[in-house]
Amino acid sequence: MLTVTMYATATCPYCQAARRLLAKKGIQFNEIEVTSVEKRVEMINRSGRRTVPQIFFGNWHVGGYDDLAQLEEESGLNEALNSRVAC
């Protein structure tokens, strides 16, 4: 199984929604708090975006919460995650 990583902050409502959706689907993830300049720069360099959350399935950049929710609506998160493992 791929590692799921989410760059986030504790108080962001979109981060909280992403946490709930991932938990509801039973998907474990590593969370990286971007409260330090170094972690925020890491997130920006990796994703090309400045907003949180930024979610990755392995090296594949899913995007933010809206992208994650759309992925769930269109194909299902578990299916998308499994298809990335098969690649």
Question: Overview of this structure, please?
Answer:
By secondary structure, the chain is of the alpha+beta class. It has one domain: Glutaredoxin (3-Layer(aba) Sandwich), CATH 3.40.30. It is built from 4 helices and 4 strands, in the order βαβαββαα. Strands 2-1-3-4 form a 4-stranded mixed sheet, sandwiched between helices. β1, α1 and β2 form a beta-alpha-beta unit. The longest helix has 12 residues. The model has no long low-confidence stretch (mean pLDDT 94).
Name the helicity range.
40-55%
Class, according to the CATH hierarchy? Alpha Beta
Q: Which structural class best describes the helix and strand composition? A: alpha+beta
The secondary-structure element order is EHEHEEHH
Average pLDDT score: 94
**How many E strands?**
4
Give unreliable regions as ranges. Answer: none
**Tally of helical runs:** 4
**CATH superfamily assignment?**
Glutaredoxin
What is the end-to-end distance?
12 Å
CATH architecture: 3-Layer(aba) Sandwich
